[in-house]
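Blinded run. Sample ID left blank on purpose so nobody reads anything into the name before looking at the predicted structure. Input follows.
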Amino acid sequence: MRITILTNKDLASCLALNHLIPGLKNHQLNVFLSSRVGGSASNENRLPQALLDLKFYEQDLFLNTVFPIADALALENPSLRSFYSLAEKFNIPISELNRINKEDFDTYASVEPDLVLSIRYGVILKQAAINLPTHGVINLHSGRLPQYKGVMASFRAMLNGDNELGTTLHYIDDGSIDTGRIIAGSSMPINPGRSYLWHVLELYEDACKMMLDTVNRIEKGEQLDSSLQQPAGNYFSFPQQQNLDEFNELGMSLLQADEVMDVAKKFYRSKRE
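Blinded prediction complete.
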């Protein structure tokens, strides 16, 4: 199949691609990246400082420092690969595409996808983009639906005192957010003492296996079972300072530097080490 992956230029998206691309290497792949999630750069600058710090660690640090150094080292078999290294290793185009509904629609349409996989993509798709692939658009949401729609769903689940974090695989049926038919879900226990970012990154291994299993079923011609979401749950935007203060008061953290360093080292180390 011709498969297009829509994702974001950040650490979690890169990890997701590391899990997905080897399992999709027999398909014709194209990867398009958004540059941010959640609006314009001016809106981003109005976020609480803690969220700007989080963005630095999960995006700027890796795009501007960790990935370029890893690419310069050019290890033959690193534990994790950067966007550039993935493109080179698997001979697939990976490029930025932010105006998918407007100026960049022809670029998106030109690859004629049979199936579109969406993970953390920063642009809400309009109907023309949704209708293009024969098998539709399937999104991996890092939260349990319909309870946790929107951004940073794992943060909201941790703040609410949930014992588990969930992911949801669902169709994008229209331009609404996280409301499409549910295909499957996965979950993992919350690990006390670990940060929000650590939990988000850990979610993607099992979630991407779930996505690969779904792609395999589509390729075999199987009919996917899906269920309509109940008109319930909540839509969450970025946390406000009050939410972040409550999170900290509960003894939880958005990130821990040692955890980030552990992930960064995987881009510099061979799998055999």
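Unblinding after everyone has recorded impressions. The longest strand covers residues 164-171.
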